[in-house]
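Curious: why these numbers?
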Amino acid sequence: MPPHDHDHQHGHDHEHGPDCNHADETLSVQIANQIINVANTRLQDGIEPEDVATGLRHAAANFTAFVTKRGLGATSDPGELIEEFARLLEYYLGRHGEEEKPAQGLNDLIEQAKNEV
């Protein structure tokens, strides 16, 4: 399965939401892009998108809990972390809602393949 059209291989050429509190080239965005590259590789391996998304949420929760419980993060309040996740999710739902429809992405992929041949 090819990477989904909503991957972050596009170089983050968009503005982040007003609540993100980070610029496009921060270390956290670079790490997020690396993780999304791994997710795209798993999609290419044939893993279902929902399984990849569930795995990413599980990993994010697990590592965030690890950092939080050891006092290694900026906050120890789980409520703040949940609010941050909700803001990020809402922002990206809006961003991906503005993107092309899946059929258009398939058409683009076909055109890209034709141009590469």
Remarks:
- The chain has a mean pLDDT of 77.
- The chain has one domain: 27-116.
